[in-house]
Amino acid sequence: MVSVSGALEGQDEVDRIVAAWGRERPDLDPRPLHVFSRVSRLSRRLDLARRRAFTDHELEGWEFDVLSALRRAGEPYELTAGRLLNETLVSSGTMTNRIDRMVAHGLVVRAGGPTDRRVVLVRLTPLGKAKVDAAMADLLETEQRLLAELEPAEAEQLTDLLRRLLLPLDR
Questions:
Q1: Are residues 93 and 81 part of one domain?
Q2: Can you give the pTM of this predicted structure?
């Protein structure tokens, strides 16, 4: 089988899907499927790996998102509720509910702002920090194993290419 780049390699499921579309709809150019179907399949597999990493540490995916935003903020591991909204792309009602649940589980605490008590700060607890650190370590170990199939230069090239595709979408 000759790939899109012309290299000889084994066929995967996406190659079979693209060939079938080429056969059934010769009026269409199915070449984008070579990229985006693989990205989609990889995304689903990564979601499953992430769920396992989170579940192993008794976290939901959304909890990991909030905890990791707080952890990335650095000492004292706190952000305003508004900043967490921007970091996690959820509505204010959803964020309030999530913070309430995480407070109940001992993962975060609420505090008033140092100069304005109307500002709500959300701070990582030692338990929240331990859980997010452990889940992140497991997740990165899994993702490192997946990337081991690529040479370092290939991984860097893939990073650059994916960034070029994502930047216009993120704007």
A1: yes
A2: 0.78
